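sorry to bug you again but im stuck and you know this stuff better than me. below you get a single protein, a line of residues and a line of whole numbers that encode the local backbone shape. mainly i need to know what kind of three dimensional shape the backbone takes. anything you notice is useful, everything is just below:

***
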Amino acid sequence: MKNKSQYLKSANQILISLGLPLAQQNERSALCLLALLNLTPGKSWANAENPLLGITPIMEWIRTYYRKEYAPNTRETVRRQTMHQFVDAGIVLYNPDQPDRPVNSPKAVYQIEPATLKLLRNFGSPAWHDYLVVYMAERESLAARYASEREQNRIPVQIAKGKKITLSPGDHSQLIRAIIEDFAPRFAPNSLLVYAGDTGDKWGYFDSAILASLGVELDLHGKMPDVVLHFTEKNWLLLVESVTSHGPVDGKRHKELAKLFKGATAGLVFVTAFPNRSIMSRYIGEIAWETEVWVADAPSHLIHFNGIRFLGPYSKD
């Protein structure tokens, strides 16, 4: 146990030397660093490695070699309170094998950055201090370069003339872009984007002032729809769910959204968006009545789950 304690102490010392924030100078982050180096007890720092590891394999490695048990529901803590900061600091790479992998992919992996690996292989050696000085002098530009590369893989979304936001890569964000750029101009022209979710950041874009002006006081614990649009011409709030792998606006979700947006002075319109009809067919039995369905690969059509309201002949012109 003394051996393991020494590894933990050394790993935490490294995190301090690398300038990681106080919130990451702890046992959890030290163990994650050891896992990313595959530094099992008894192994020398000179033999540190750089395997590709996801969050669950990291936690399993820690349990196996350092006898520290983390409950499955702490995955998000490890990801958000340790790995995010490692990536931001430039000491760890995110999905280096496939940089455009979706943020919420179960195949997401992390790897020690090459220059950091070279540095840490010298920990405890007479050359450690000299290597550390050189590394720290270059690290700011290194972190900025990797941040720039991550930004290049984000999905640009045109939200207004001359104004863009970017979303994390993945099918979900691609569909959100289609909702904003294709659905909105066709069915809610000149509408204002109020909210767009992001798999990497819950509040990807949010204009809270618009909701406040419409009498909506959000419960921040409530789950927002993926896109909220204010169709000013008709004073409607369009609440749109983007469905690529999770469910549509079903009866339960309809009630949740109605409760979340209670008090709105605008009418509520519930919309489920699918990338194609093949995916829509998986959920057809779940879609709630009194809602709309839009399919991105047939963008000029809506499917109305609204009973007799739209019954009638189409013009032959």
User: Anything to note?
Assistant: DSSP finds ten helices and eleven strands in the chain. The two ends are 82 Å apart (CA to CA). The longest helix spans residues 128-152.
